Amino acid sequence: MGIRLTRRALMGTWVIQMSAASARADVRALEVVMAPCNLGLRPPSPGHEPGTWKAPETLREAGLLNDLMPDRVHKIGRPLYHFGAQAGTRVRNGQEMRRFSESLAHQVGATLSRAAFPLVLGGDCSILLGCLLGARQGGICGLIHVDGHSDFMHPGDFPPGTVLSSAAGMDLALASGRGESLLTDWGQGVRPLVADQHIVQIGEREDGYPDYAYPDIKQTRITRINVQTALTQGIGATARQAIERLEAERLDRVWLHVDVDVLDQKVMPAVDSPGSPGFNFDQLADLIRRLRASSRIIGADISVFDPELDPEGSYGRGLAQCLARAFAPL
């Protein structure tokens, strides 16, 4: 293959150089961003942090980076998790999340400025905010939100008596401008991060999941394809429907968010809110590749895998293999 690998530490970045003969088949270089975040999740037990911050390194150990051979790997510093409330916010870890989102946005924006494709490995799904903020540095950006839940909780539908809410259940609401200004107003006129009509949500389980369904999303201009419909009509038809919606909005810059709880709990129980029905690994990889083939997807993030719920490592290996297929050169 004529591959020449050299690695050098430079501001926390591992750089992989390849000879011209082994350059990627697709136009854009792939850069992986390791985002070890757990800020958006509630503690699974008193005094114990959620384990999603371990996911990026676990996926690396499972061989994902060896398979993908990214041109660069960037590592964002792990943020400090706070168990109690913070001043000025009703969102758990809200202040730290603002800082982490801005750091992540800086790296995503820098990667996009090089015309490279950032693949962000999280982390809980609050990493979506930093990813979109980084993408917005280059102009208006749409969103395909692949998730087993709509994550549309916001102050208008907080359960009675809520003192602290968790951003992992409200990332889509925050991204679309619903919620406190700390996590919706990003300065320089950036609110919302993405307009309702520029969002396609794929994968919500609507039937039998009242704790995670927020009916007011039905009153928005967000395009919704629930998991039952996606499985019935097939992955090809689902991808076409999403792409046609983006085309109708004349969007050529779209971020892809993938929360792996969209996978059926039979193949991926190592998440905080597993469920069925859902995709299998092959279906998720196929969906991602079909969306990428539209040339509209400028970057992607992967969230909510918790290695602490996978003591034998089998689900992590399955996920790594799925992502290797999904993000291999087209």
Structural features:
330 residues; alpha/beta; Arginase, Chain A
Describe it for me?
This protein is α/β, with parallel strands linked by helices and 330 residues long. It has one domain (10-326): Arginase, Chain A (3-Layer(aba) Sandwich), CATH 3.40.800. It has helices spanning 55-61, 64-68, 94-113, 127-136, 171-175, 227-233, 235-248, 281-292, 314-326, and strands at residues 9-10, 13-15, 30-35, 72-75, 117-122, 142-146, 199-202, 223-225, 254-259, 297-303. It has a 10-stranded mixed beta sheet with strand order 1-2-4-3-5-10-9-6-7-8, with helices on both faces. Strand 9, helix 8 and strand 10 (297-303) form a beta-alpha-beta unit. Helix 3 packs across helix 4 and helix 8 packs parallel to helix 9 (314-326). Mean pLDDT is 88; it is low at 1-25.
